[in-house]
Amino acid sequence: MDAVPSSAPARRTVILAGAGAAALAVCPRAATAAAAAGPVPLADRPAEAAELPLRADRTTQGDVLAGSRKDHACLLLLHFRDVVLARRWLARLVPELSTTEEMARFNALFSAARVKAGGTDPASLSAQWTGLSLTYPGLRLFAGRDPFPAVPADSTAEAFTQGAARRAEALGDTGASAPASWLFGAEDPRRAVHAVLSLSADDPDRLASTVTRHREALATAGATIVFRQDAGTLAGALRGHEHFGFTDGISQPGVRGFHAPDPATGTTVQGKPGTRLVPAGEFLVGQEKAGQRPAGLPAWANGGSFQVVRRLAQDVPGWWEQARQRLAELKKAGAAPADATATWVAARLVGRWPGGTPVAGCPLAEVPGPVGSDPDAHLTYHEDAQGWHTPLFAHIRKGNPRDGLVPGPGRPPLDPGVLDNRRIIRRGIPFGPAYDPQHPEGAGGPDTPRGLVFIGYQADLVQQFEFVAKKWINESDFPAGRNPRVGADPVLGPDSPVTFETESDNGSRATTLRFGRYVRTQGALYAFTPSLPTLRALAQGVLDDSVEVHPGTVLRPGDVLDAGAVRLALAADGDLVVLDRSGARRWSAGTAGTGHDALFSRDGELTVRTEAGATAWTSGTAGHPGARLLVKPSGDVVILDVDRVLWRAPGGHVG
């Protein structure tokens, strides 16, 4: 499919306003509060930019943290037949890959210019970005061996190794969304996707010439394009929206070390008071994770992120017809205002009005804030346990419960910080032309392919993407313990009855509605977006598969770091041990009964600590910031300062 061209010479983001003066009376503080919280572009704050090291990172690929944010995109899904030619191609490609530093710098300049222009995109600023991700078969091809020394059950390594097609049923990709009907992701192993080459640009002609150049280079490398996915920002009033008509890409997590913290809180993004800062290790492997949890991944994963690619087809007329039908049912039950429209219902399915304003603060109609303001500045579910304002089944609440997740009826909501390890960075872009009911026989007709290319980044496929999809989006009993059940997400979830709750004299009144599935999965991949150093090594056929314990990591009883031939574990009795393949103890710190946790500090020291925080055992290697703790498939467990061994677990093997 061709990228959707822009029909307007001057590019603007149009905010759909479903409200007039009457809506201002509903939430009069929305616009003024949002204006006061408007972001200050990082480009105007050089001193603060210097304190955000991830913004200056030239080793990580930029789409993960910064985002390409281009109007036109093309994904080429590649299969290589000759590893020698493939590695030569990779070596030539690496210098072209876009880094976090490049994208962050450009995006800051672009955003600042756009705010100054009142929402018009600056025509003088233009860029083209290149990214590369590798699937499990692709990593294995370039490395010449298995990239994982061990694949623990229920781990992200297992999910990545199996791939999206093998895990489709558990994720709800069944029936019309089953892999048998996919356009990519379920190929014969002899044509398996090895790599995802992502190309994006502001200018469609520039993107077209870039795609042509890469196709020629791939032909020289003997590669096959298994599938080509073109995509582009929708034109006109739908610019910045997905095909159902709702603004997309709102509510991205803030990332520590990349986004400036608000000095007043330290836990939210400056200029975006409704956005929590999440530890960077939830998105980039090698950074500190929430709760200082171990990643348990090989060293080649450092600086990279697991990528989920999904082609989601959208039945636009079917979805809106369903909204109209459910509106009639709600009016008949007295659960909707007499003047409510289909948009009123659709906004509750999503949790936002089409322009992005949450229904929580503006229940009757939308009141958009100024350009550049944070629509979620005051979004909270804490006092809405029944879902009277934002339904419990609403798409944005299912995918990110924020401060309103009640673990059981009558219990207080959980602290939102406990959900940091469930966040995902989303990079979506529409494909296909917008639906046009005035021209049903043309490209705007209902049978023309259209939908969303979903791209998500996370450090743990199982605990982030898969958890959210299985336990929140698709689960009818989430939030749990309610009678009747809440129901699945009516936007992305399976066919499901949902409970629409409204306030009544006797408390909460429940109206049951049934929603069908109008978003269908047409393809899915699990890939990994490696750092540039890892890609350079792969171009030489080199891969460091030592399992790394990153500085700042805390091991707790039951944690096991598995490198196949050897495992580093904190046993249930608090003893730090090294185990061989059979599970026999090769070495022990002798902390059984006294050890509470084990910390690998930022200055290179491994210690076992008591419950009171005292040192029960130490490696004695303090004073070496930047040192690495590796569990090596050769059988070694070592702390290295570059190549110098600072500590080795007794009984290990030199290698």
TrEMBL record:
Key word Transmembrane present: no
Keywords, in A-Z order: Heme, Iron, Lectin, Metal-binding, Oxidoreductase, Peroxidase
UniProt xrefs under PROSITE patterns: DYP_PEROXIDASE, TAT
Gene Ontology molecular function terms on file: carbohydrate binding; heme binding; metal ion binding; peroxidase activity
InterPro entries named in the record: Bulb-type_lectin_dom, Bulb-type_lectin_dom_sf, Dimeric_a/b-barrel, Dyp_peroxidase, TAT_signal
Cofactor: heme b
Coiled coil start-end: none
GO cellular component annotations of the record: cytosol
Stretch forming the signal peptide: none
Protein origin, superkingdom: Bacteria
UniProt family annotation: Belongs to the DyP-type peroxidase family.
PANTHER family assigned to the protein according to its UniProt record, in alphabetical order: DEFERROCHELATASE, DEFERROCHELATASE/PEROXIDASE
Protein name according to UniProt: D-mannose binding lectin
